[in-house]
Design goal:
CATH class of the largest domain: Few Secondary Structures
CATH superfamily of the largest domain: High potential iron-sulphur protein
Number of domains: 2
Oligomer: single chain
Distance between the termini: 71 Å
Radius of gyration: 27 Å
Bound molecules: iron/sulfur cluster
Helix content: 25-40%
Amino acid sequence: MDGRRYVPANDNTQRYPMQTTVSRRALLNGALVAAAALPLMKLGTSTAEAAALVPLDPNDPSAKALGYAADSAKVDGAANPTHKAEQVCSTCAQYLGKADDAQAGCNLFPGKSVAAKGWCKVWAKKPGT
Ligand code: SF4
């Protein structure tokens, strides 16, 4: 040893001990506040997104191509032989709403909402429903 203290090149705790302590505390506090606010931010975003959606018009060309109907009970069985009465958007894997939403987004129709009791040819059972 030559009498000099070893200080790692990137360790500022020796030169600025208070700044490092305050910085860590501020960082931790910021992380805690952000973590606490995240669910609220998500809720706000979901509400805003749902309000911005336009109900899908069954006469929209893309809706027609997939045989979308706002009411699954009114689907023409002859034209859609795979359709079953119990198949509705709210139980489809592409449906973005909650079980009790009357209308919600669908992965296939960005910017649009579909009826919970609707149906289209792409219907696939949502896991857990
Ligand atoms: S993909 Fe599913 S949720 Fe979307 S319109 Fe078709 S049946 Fe409804």
